[in-house]
């Protein structure tokens, strides 16, 4: 009897060790890139806080975009680590995390819309750009973006409160925390789907319209060709970034479809892969697309990073 139980215990220990090793590898592959890009985003945000950037509308909008993307990346990473570690939360805690994640998720496409309009005005109305796109108007636009996103989440919370939590017996969740598990009830799901579709269709229309306006203005003799070409490339990047933001909206529906057709073990591994591909990767690209290609931000960013490295090296050798 003991000879039979001994191999079984060894197998269970090996399975436990393999599962632990897989979790550690997943933790490293997802957390290290997140920390690197959180550091880069934080450094760019610190760079943009300098007085030379605070007076330019384009950089104020970029700061708002990077702030939203950084917060979104941090919250998504926390939720992912909770799922990897199999930590179950209560509905209030999970609801707070997902609401904050959704606020920042809506901010990105709305800010891209404003950034596209700013570039369109700069090319199509170069002599009126300074009068239209002022620092005050830019800050009002950002305030409107955050207000619109907050109102959207207030509606989501109201719809969530209609769910009969008293019938659950306990507020402790039986599933891992995610935006999908917090869509309790058909009305919440219908509203979320309708709002997501409206948001991204509107953003795409604004960016494409701005792109067409820039192309038309580029053919005019009164518009600088180099400026129009640069604005056109920038708008193309806005459209690419919008598509990347849109990809995150298919994450939860894809998980719902996969969990019905694949085994649990395969689903867990696919969930980790899709998280890196659909959630982590697009959030990490924002700093590369908008920050590192800018001729004013890049020297300031490299100077700040080099200064930090020199200080750390001096502290180590000292």
Structural overview:
By secondary structure, the protein is mostly helical. Helices cover 82% and strands 0% of the residues. It contains eleven helices and no strands. Helix 1 (2-48) runs parallel beside helix 10 (264-291). It starts with a helix and ends with a helix.
The average pLDDT score comes to 76
Number of separate strands: 0
Low-confidence stretches at least 5 residues in length (pLDDT < 50)? none
Shape: globular
**Helicity range of the residues?**
over 70%
Q: Which structural class should the secondary elements be placed in?
A: mainly alpha
Give the H and E element order: HHHHHHHHHHH
Beta content comes to under 5%
Radius of gyration, taken over Cα atoms and rounded to an integer in Å: 23 Å
What does the largest sheet look like?
A: none
The count of helical stretches stands at: 11
Terminal CA distance reads: 64 Å
Topology overview:
Elements: H1 2-48, H2 51-54, H3 57-84, H4 91-124, H5 129-132, H6 135-161, H7 186-218, H8 225-247, H9 251-261, H10 264-291, H11 297-317
Helix pairs in contact: 1-3, 1-10, 1-11, 3-4, 3-6, 3-10, 4-6, 4-7, 4-8, 6-7, 7-8, 8-10, 9-10
List keywords for this structure.
318 residues; mainly alpha; 0% strand; globular
